[in-house]
Write a structure and sequence with these properties.
Blueprint lengths: L1 H7 L2 H47 L6 H23 L2 H17 L5 H21 L4 E4 L4 E5 L4 H8 L11 H12 L8 E4 L2 E9 L2 E9 L2
Antiparallel strand pairs: 1-2, 2-5, 3-4, 4-5
Helix pairs in contact: 2-3, 3-4, 4-5
Pfam family, one: CorC_HlyC
Keywords: Membrane, Transmembrane, Transmembrane helix
InterPro entries: FAD-bd_PCMH-like_sf (IPR036318), FAD-bd_PCMH_sub2 (IPR016169), Transptr-assoc_dom (IPR005170)
């Protein structure tokens, strides 16, 4: 009993539990936000009705800028939800990009503000490309890795201490695709499979292309 209590209050164990609680809290908040965004989408629909009504009944120009502002707010909200769920640096940059784009397109600022906005977007693109889009992103406390599908299998072996055969795929996405093909399984979002001492989960797909893979060592 004393040993169990001691293990429960172990610093590493407490960090893990707090981290898991925070992760579930983020998911709950993301769900609440999703419900709110669905409800607020009614505003976008009403904006379309207003534009159509104004176009056919009045001589004034329909309030397109207001409609764009509403749409951008919804898109930013959706990207923020994705950021809470994915918890990767790239998803945070997406939120900032849409926020600045909304300021440029929907709001009518000065030329200086527009120039600063364009410069900020250029900096964010450069950051995402060269500095903040790591091939392997490690969730240290959760013990899993978010791996870019284009990462070489040699790099994965080096970082994870694995011994995946490079002859079966030059990239981690190619390796997983060939493994699933051999097993007669079609790749799909959130598909999980165990290869050796690791669990592979398709974390993100673009049509049939595997973009990111979640790799978790077996405990």
């Amino acid at each position: 009993m004393k040993r169990k209590i001691k293990l429960f209050f172990d610093k590493q164990n407490l960090r893990r539990m707090i981290n898991q609680t925070a992760s579930y809290s983020e998911i709950i908040i993301a769900g609440i936000m999703l419900v709110g965004i669905i409800l607020l989408s009614v505003r976008a629909f009403s904006g379309i009705v207003t534009i159509i009504t104004t176009f056919f009944t009045e001589d004034s120009i329909p309030p397109v800028s207001e409609f764009l502002s509403i749409v951008f707010e919804l898109v930013i909200g959706i990207e923020f939800i994705k950021m809470l769920v994915k918890r990767t640096p790239a998803s945070a940059i997406e939120v900032l990009l849409y926020t600045i784009a909304r300021k440029l397109v929907a709001d009518h600022g000065s030329m200086l503000e527009s120039l600063l906005g364009v410069v900020a977007i250029a900096i964010l693109f450069a950051t995402r490309k060269y500095l903040n889009d790591p091939e392997i992103y490690n969730h240290e406390l959760e013990g899993d890795y978010i791996v870019n599908g284009g990462t070489s299998i040699q790099e994965v072996n080096k970082r994870l201490g694995a011994d995946f055969d490079a002859a079966k795929g030059n990239t981690v996405a190619g390796y997983l695709f060939n493994y699933l093909k051999k097993e007669g399984v079609k790749p799909s979002y959130r598909l999980k499979t165990t290869i050796g001492d690791f669990v592979f989960e398709i974390y993100e797909m673009d049509d049939d292309l595997i973009r990111h893979i979640k790799i978790t060592p077996l405990k």
